[in-house]
Design goal:
Number of domains: 2
Number of strands: 13
Strand order of the largest sheet: 3-2-1-4-5-6-7
Order of helices and strands: EHHEEHHEHEHHEHEEHEHEHEHEEHHH
CATH superfamily of the largest domain: Glycogen Phosphorylase B
Shape: globular
Helix content: 40-55%
Distance between the termini: 14 Å
Amino acid sequence: MARRQPIRLVLFFTSGVSLQKWDELGMLSREVALYQRLQRLGVEVTFVTYGDAGDRQYNARLPGIRICCNTGGLPRHVYERLLPLLHLRALRRANLFKTNQTEGGAAALASARLHNKPLIARCGYMWSEFMQRRHGPNAAATRRSEATEWQVFGGADQVVVTTEAMRQSVVRRQPWLGGRVTVIPNYVDTETFSPGAAQDVIPNHLCYVGRLDDAQKNLTALVGAVSDLDVTLDLIGEGPLRPALEEAAVRNPRVRLWGGLPHSELPDHLRRAAVFVLPSHYEGHPKTLIEAMACGTPIVTTDVPGIRELVRDGETGVLCAPNTDALRTRIAALLSDAVLRAHIGRGARDFAVQHYAVDHIAKTELDLYYGLVQP
């Protein structure tokens, strides 16, 4: 049997994103977990980030991962354009390139073409669909995202998306891609995110983790839903809706804002919750939902794109319409039914372990890499 060629992977960060930003948002350990698992499987990993020289401080925290960043402090658009040349040595040594998201994928594609390397265009959510929802179908941001997806997906050797619905969306718009579009879902560390002791659960306690906004996350509806319920609600995250939520918390002290927390602190919050609530209008493939499932926390969430593909109503969570009345009704019903909560918690945990465990996803990724690198 022929010996497999070593994989030397370069991950191109989302445009404008740095290791420092991941760290500030409490996302660093979550975002690098897959690549640390791939290292254990023999993959050499390089990160190309948009951080300044400060990103180099993470060498000690990410041993073995090479960090290429904007040490010269160039303007972002200049740095992005010059990426294929600025990191010449690392890019030449690699034998596989990958994007973290579509935004910033043009730089990865230019690098792949210049250095003649295979490219995986990975996206955790469909950027153009998010832009269309936020800005409308004819907005400049929407047209730019559509053009980038068309260019990057079309130029990649493989496109990786996180859900079957996203795969269908790509193939519908670019049908010739066909078998070059693969579904590899987001992952969760199912050892870190695992169930706690039953006695740790706080009765009638709800938890939400995510961005604080209304356009996508629909938090005004959630706060309205709990206003008449005898519950506490912890909101974990940052975002533009925070001032309005702080005012709501003054009126209802049972609503508590925690701000952004380190990823390592989330499991304890999820284990203490009687119910995890995600009231979004739409999602891509929400990591916080998968993490709650892995903790065995019963879930109330909305029957919308990006969520309905993850949750089986009554089995791994409870689905409802994204409005105040529906959220209130389903939260109250689940809180009153301990048997159903236990059933959903077990089902959610089993589903997360079976489909999203990081070790399983790492092996799936590695098989894809070998398919592109081996002659």
